[in-house]
Amino acid sequence: METVKGKSIFVDTNILVYCNNKDSPFCKPAREKLTELIKNANRLFISDQVIREYLVIMTKPGVLEKPISPKLAIQDVTRMREEFNLLFADRKALDMLADLIVRYGIKGRRVHDTAIVSIMLAKGISDIVTHNVNDFKYFNDLTIHSI
After folding, report:
1. What range does the domain containing 104 cover?
2. Most exposed: 11, 85, 98, 125, by fewest CB within 10 Å?
3. 30-84 residue pLDDT tens
4. Would 1 be classed as within a structural domain?
5. What is the pTM of this model?
6. Rg (Cα) of the chain, in Å, rounded?
7. Based on the structure, what is the number of domains in the chain?
């Protein structure tokens, strides 16, 4: 496994969900990956979209075996806002989104992941840590780190 040092890295929603879901078999690998990235002086980023996705996944019955209360989910988000750099879509990111949709022929649900990529690239971030490698493999501009 390659050591990543001193980079800006975007953290996908699934990593945060796994880190905060002790019942998941991916909890430990996700926590270990984030610990490794932080230890090696990487700067970690999330977006407002990731926060919304996290809230949906963690509180929705049927998605997780044991969804958490909205109050606990908001406590998690409050902590995340302190631990990660938070990005928001701006005009440059929206222009990048339009470019990526046309360039890669993006349709349907893939627009959600493309929106994440557009914010990343607009902010100069080309690395992402995710469990869902297939969601991002289409984008030539990215370096994908998985758990």
Report:
1. 8-141
2. 98
3. 999 999 999 999 999 999 999 999 999 999 998 888 899 999 999 999 999 999 9
4. no
5. 0.95
6. 15
7. 1
